[in-house]
Amino acid sequence: MRGREPEWAAILKLLGTAADTTANVVLVEGEPGMGKSLLLAEAATVAAARGTAVATGRADELGRLTPLGPLLSALEESPAPVAVTRSDFPDGPGLLMWLAERVRAALERRARPGPLLVTLDDLQWADPATLMALRTLPSRLASHPLAWLLARRTTSGGGDSGLLFDLLEQEGATRILLSPLDEETVSEVVADTLNAAPGEELAELAAQAGGDPSLLLALLTGLREENAVRVGSGVALLTGTALPRRLHAAVRRRLDEVSARTRHLLEATALLGRSFSPGYAAEMLGQPPAALLPSLEEALAAGVLVVASDKLAFRNELVWRSIVDTVPAPVRQALRQQIGQGPPARRLPRHQRADGAAADTLVLLSLLAWDEGRLARGLELAREAVELPGSGRHPQPRAVLTTMLTDLWLLDEAETVLAGAVEEAAGQPEWAAEIPVLRARLDLAAGRLGSAIEQAEAGLTAAGSLGVPVLVSSALSVLGTASLRAGDLPRAVRYLESDLARGVRDAPPYARLRSELTAGRISEARGGAASGMSSLSQVYDALPRHTGALTSDPTAAAWLVRVAMAVRDERRADAVVDAAEGIAWRNPRLPNPSVAAAHARGVRERDPDALVRAMTEHTDPWARASAAEDLGVLLGADAGARDLAVSSLNSALLCYGSVDAIRDAARVRGRLRALGERRRHWVRTDHPVSGWSSLTGTERAVCDLVAQGVTNRQAAEQMFISEHTVAFHLRQVFRKLGIRSRVELARLAVQESVRPDRRGAS
């Protein structure tokens, strides 16, 4: 326990008070190799020697499939872990409640004869059910002689286990951070292992372990095994320069925790030096920076890489050297030749490659965090990136930050960030093309539908000519959503079926899923819930790994639940609620995720209290209207709550009207008519007596639908009016245009759509 005296004292204090009924908790965390597992093992040994019962368990990556697996394995009588599969028990909350009760009862039973120490290691890989149980069990079992020793690996962003540790510490738990060993302690470990003080060269080599105890011991033991050190006059001297095989094996075990793709990336970038620019690494590998994002995040989470001031660096020099040494010589030679030459058309001077690298890295990490539902972390990283000099590559830090702020309806800050982006975009075509798309998203959030459509069309034209799938995807999402809300379903369908929409599949998940959500909304509006579900399978199936669709719209989770329930797919409805609540749990300081989760839960469980909360706490007026409409529908099913239902629907109608959501307002008026309430929805405007300009807004909507070949009944369903009313408006259209058939109407509609003053609306 060299260098861990203060930490070990805290452990001994825990063991000394294990018999007290105070639910003692000690939290141990640190980077990989810092000795967390050794500390827990030593604590278990000492506790057993003192007569304290011990239950030990650990989480692993595959164990995430088993709810409460670490706790169940720790508390079983037999040494083999219990295999729990969902197929053996009722699915859903019933299984988790059964398992949680089993864990609680086992803990009480094991602590009844005397004090019990529970040690759980590697909680960074624990399943959500285990983390939720550890959130409550220490306080629920405070009356029992129970001590808890919990350990996790620190990762970038903290993750769910980090949030658990924060909450337990706030409630009085002792927190221990195992830091790298200092220089003096490293020398003591060398002396302990080799029975001699290190010579100068050996001391320098030992320092390359970076204070990592596990790598240091692997190095020293390997050197001794291979006779690469000799002792003379009480000093240990190096006799060779090669790293020992035992160290290479230790590094390989650490790299085995990451995917093969990430390992290959580390092998390639190691040849760039101990630190490297992610942008140049992408150039060398012939990929866009965004393609490296998952591997970079994985390497950071595994503790292999760290963010330096302006680039990424290998955390540990021994790890870096080992990776370089174990790359086969022919491969190493080919990669070094490629580094020396670089892609001829794209290679930049070295000082330019370094400039902006840190911003690029932070942007990529922020997008990954956002896509995984770690919104607060994504927002933090994006704000940091904006403060650094940019590289000129896409995506731009200000664009990413503006999008995130808009999603969270922090519109004032989004406006400020966007204002600073306009000047920055000068002379950069991709960046300049993104400005109107960002403006369109802001206009849509603020309810300025006409401006949103105009800006998004400008951005779509530029993005299409530049061939940037991410911008095309964002522009089409805005155009489809704004057209749908404005009551122009034919326009929304045209965007959905345009040639540009086919290229959206090349966009990364965080952008593609937004487009797929919009496509699902349009399909549902066009053909009902079953049609919408056929377009949404990727959105549902991506949960909970990719949650970008849920964060792009405050009502997305509630709407996805509603569609799933309409086709009686309760499994997918529950998956959406779980994902939404997971986002809220990961972001306790952001109010919107919690409200969105309450809205989704209210729809799923038909809970009026949850819907009232959503109706009052949503910051987005359209989202408030949606929650009010859901509440009105729920109350409308109860004859005794008719007045409350009408009141909720009136609130929805008012909110939809405030953001010009014509189609949604029409739907609510239909719901009110079903309750015996009628609301006027027209305004008196002076029109010519004939020709296209004589048509009212409703008549134009009827024209658009009929010209597309839909029947009067289908048009009535789309417009939330009766079939008789559609027929009346159609007769008015025929009279004003001087025609007698639908064929003539379709021909005139096509002619009208290609007139110069109408092309922007086509």
From TrEMBL:
Q: Which PROSITE patterns match?
A: HTH_LUXR_2
Q: From which organism does this entry originate?
A: Streptosporangium brasiliense
Q: Which Pfam families match?
A: AAA_16, GerE
Q: Name one GO molecular function term.
A: DNA binding
Please state every residue range assigned to the domain named HTH luxR-type: 688-753
Sorted keywords for this record are: ATP-binding, DNA-binding, Nucleotide-binding
Against Gene3D superfamilies, the record matches this protein to: Tetratricopeptide repeat domain, Winged helix-like DNA-binding domain superfamily/Winged helix DNA-binding domain
- Classify the source by domain of life: Bacteria
The protein's name in its UniProt record: DNA-binding CsgD family transcriptional regulator
Q: Which SMART domains does the entry mention?
A: HTH_LUXR
